[in-house]
Amino acid sequence: MHRYQRRLRLFLAVTLFSALAVNAAAAQEPGADASWKSLRPDIFGERPIEEASPLVRLTAPKRAEDAAMVPIDVEIVLPEGDPRTVSKLTLIVDENPAPLAATFTFGGSRRDVALGTRLRVNSYSYVRAIAETSDGGLHMAERYVKASGGCSAPAMKDEEAQLKNLGQLKLKSVKADGMGDASQASRVSQLQLMIRHPNYSGLQMDPLTRAYIPAKFVDNIRVTQGDELIFSMVGGISLSEDPAIRVSYDPDGKEVHVDAGDTDGRKFEGELKPAS
């Protein structure tokens, strides 16, 4: 009996210590909520947001290998019988100079969406995914990512090579098997889009002149299948160089068309013809 009690006390002590350690680590996260509290009314006004929503799952690394290309995946899944649809997804990096990374709008009656992309993370920060449903409800998931310098990191390619390939699109449709397993969307098909573009943030320095390179980035994308919208995006400097987006969709045999543009007014187009 005494041996059992000693084991029980040891177990309770270890459990309590673990809980305290987790709480202490969370409390030490720099700027845990301060930035979000000031950002939230600027982006969403006074609209209520369901935090830690069961409808949204966000996957991101705890510690990024490359702060300029942090992979994230988001899945939005409405429960069976829910009459609402998924209309928008907003991505936010709290501590970035321009925290609003991108807003995606989805066409059709989407009841689940799987989307992946790459973000810049400039300092230790919460990354947030806020989904909007057709009734106007906002549902959020968050992930704390340890990374620094993502917005000021130099471009991976030299300027001559970047200008030569500027605006080139890679577009393909594949059977989805790597975006997760929570939704039907993640198991059907996904559209993969990549646009060659340096996506200059305005915080990067020219290694020769030591002057800052002016901001220049892809700020709008629209992807349609036939006459139907798959998704559109309005983006900012927090999207990585060579923006890449993977999104679930339902192929219907019609041509997929991409129209995109950057802040300099350049227009980029591409298409994916259905398999014959």
From TrEMBL:
Residues in Ig-like SoxY domain copies: 42-151
Keyword Signal: yes
Keywords: Signal
SUPFAM superfamilies assigned to the protein according to its UniProt record, in alphabetical order: E set domains
Signal peptide residue numbers: 1-27
A Pfam family recorded for this sequence: SoxZ
Entries under InterPro entries matching the protein: Fuse-rel_SoxYZ, Ig-like_fold, Ig_E-set, SoxY, SoxY_sf, SoxZ_dom
Domain Sulphur oxidation protein SoxZ: residue ranges: 182-272
Region span, Disordered: 251-276
Gene3D superfamilies from the UniProt entry: Immunoglobulins (2.60.40.10), SoxY domain (2.60.40.2470)
Protein name in UniProt: Sulfur-oxidizing protein SoxY
